[in-house]
């Protein structure tokens, strides 16, 4: 497992930096390809749901049943899964409404702005959005890190899925901050910093969880990770994909994500 540490940290950092990619897209492209974005968000949800239920949940169950027996292991797996859902739902509940990262922005919004002076309410909204995304990214960082530590191939799949969903979040930070200030550097910096919560989550997982990482702890963490990823998919990715949806593209993306994940798991067994 120690040899996977650098890989796990690297993958978590890449996932987090995708918010910065989102803000750069906002500045260097003139339109949002809504069809492609809808498909990719659906694809990301498909990857995350499939890998959570078929791979991560099963690995958690195997670890817990192997350590604690059939009955206790099964109950703890289910408890860990719904515990992860409750954790991310609790975080979501206490994010200020002004910074709701689900309120997606388009690249075109940057080009419509004509900023003469700082708009403090918009700047506050952009700052809250950055904070909200950072709070969401923290448990995602723990999820990516622990998955990559146990199985680098699984970590790559999760990294790709999370990175895809971080791109529109980067746009969601950059647009209101740029609207408010006219300052591209400030907008990019806030977007970039919100993504760094992901590797910070990995660092916390390494410093606090690693010393206690036995089969039981691993099983509980993996069960919670499965719950977190399913919640993110159903609460964030699919609603966002449906906002941009045309002709069921988000569902086609969802099925494609599941299929790609299924094939990749079969190839690496």
Oligomeric form: single chain
Order of helices and strands: HHHHHHHHHH
Q: Could you tell me the number of beta strands?
A: 0
Biggest β-sheet strands, sense, barrel: none
Find the structural class using helix and strand composition. mainly alpha
Beta-strand percent range: under 5%
Distance between the termini: 18 Å
Low-confidence stretches: 98-102, 113-118
Q: What sort of overall outline do the alpha carbons produce when their principal axes are compared? A: globular
Cα-based radius of gyration, to the nearest Å? 19 Å
**Average pLDDT value?**
78
Annotation field: number of helices: 10
Helix content: over 70%
How would you concisely characterize the structure shown here?
This protein has 269 residues and is mostly helical.
